[in-house]
Fold:
Amino acid sequence: MNQIQVLDYKPELQSYFEDINKQWIAEFFALEEFDRLQLEKPEEYIISKGGTIIFAQENDKVLGTVALSKVGEGIYEMIKMGVSPEARGKRLGYFLGQQILEKAKQMGAQKVILYTNSKLGPALSLYKKLGFKETEKECGKYDRCDIKMEIKL
Structure:
């Protein structure tokens, strides 16, 4: 990961989000219906609520991103980690996970939660490798059964 730079969100990186806005809004944000309908720029929503977004860049090309959304005092939710096809085999997901957890500590997080699906085997094993532990199953949010995971910092 020597050539990978970690960048904080800046408006010039917004275009990266344009491709995944609909997916994030429909599948990963735990928002009230009203907020979901009003949300056009999820990156601005995350930041305005006290969250953060980081990007992994190599040779001026964004290869991946991950965000933290503040959900309570000292509690953040890790939002969908996106990694581009060019990044496969570079262990970028693990690297991004480590970086966002470090950022969470700097922001005063005591706990980071996330929701994943049991069908996403590689993601589930990645989260476990980062130190997340399964806490409970929650069904119904998006017509699928989610696995809630958390890590205490």
Notes: The beta strands are 5-8, 52-58, 61-72, 75-83, 111-117, 133-139, 145-152. Residues 5-152 form a domain with the Aminopeptidase fold (CATH 3.40.630.30). Confidence is low (pLDDT under 50) at residues 20-29. Residues 27 and 142 are 7 Å apart (CA to CA).
